Amino acid sequence: MQTDLRQDALGLPSRSVLHTLARLVRQSPPSAGGTRLVAVDGRSGSGKSTLATDLSAELSAPLVRLDDLYEGWDGLPGVGDLLREWIAEPLAAGGQARWRPYRWDTATRDEWRTVPTSSVLVLEGCGAGSAALRDHLALLVWVEASADVRLRRLRGRPDWTGYRCHQARWAAAEQALLDRENTPGHADVVVHNDSTPATLTFPAPTPPTL
Fold first, then answer.
1. What is the C-alpha to C-alpha distance for residues 3 and 12, in angstroms, rounded to an integer?
2. Does residue 2 carry a pLDDT above 50?
3. CATH number of the domain bearing residue 190
4. Is 207 inside a domain boundary?
5. How far is residue 46 from each of residues 32, 51, 192, 195, measured CA to CA in Å?
6. Contact of 115 with 98, CB cutoff 8 Å
7. Residue 189: in which H helix or E strand, if any?
8. If I label 84, which of 23, 32, 69, 139 is the partner at 20 to 30 A Cα–Cα?
9. pLDDT in tens, 3-26
10. What angle do CA 174, 54, 185 make, to 5 degrees?
11. In angstroms, rounded to a whole number, what is the distance separating the alpha carbons of residues 17 and 14?
12. Mean local confidence (pLDDT), 74-102
C-alpha cells in the first residue's frame, strides 16, 4: 500500500473505518492472480467477524470464514497452510480457489466448495494473516480490542454457553500464534475496536531479525 494513501486515510477523520478500508482495497494491485486477497485477523471477540461481513458487502466480495476451515479446537496452527494451498496458490496460478468445510460435530470435512471468481476475496478469522499467506495478501487488517472488552463481547454471544469451556484453550492457541508470527506487527492497518467509533493506525514495517 502506498504511503500517500495511508496518510490520506489518516487525514480523513469524518470518513468511516469501513469506507477507508474499502478504498484502500480498491486502490491496491491484485495480489493473487487477478484477485485482491484481504485478511481480517484478530483475536476472538475483537469484532473482526462483523467488520469482515460489512467490508465484504461494501466491496461486493466473497467472504471465507476460517471457522469453517479450522480442524477443530487444535486447528489454528495449520490454517495458514490450508489457506495457502486451497486459496492463495490456486488464485496466483490463475485458477479458482476452493475449500472443504470442516464439520465440528463429526470431525470430518464436507465436499469441495468453490469460491466465486471476484476481483476481491475477504478472509476472516484468527490466522487469516498467517506468515504462510502474507506474500499473497493485498491488505492485512488486524482488529485490536482489550482483553476485558473481548471477554465481555464473547459472554454476550448466543454461542457463549458452548464456547465457554473452550475459550481458555483457544485463547492460548491465539497467543502462541501471535508470539510466533507477530501478526499485528505485520498488519497494513490496525483497527482499534475497543469503543465506538473505531480508529485506524498504520504500523511501520517490522524490521528484519538480525
1. 15
2. no
3. 3.40.50.300
4. no
5. 27, 10, 9, 11
6. yes
7. strand 189-192
8. 23
9. 333 333 333 333 578 999 999 999
10. 35
11. 9
12. 97
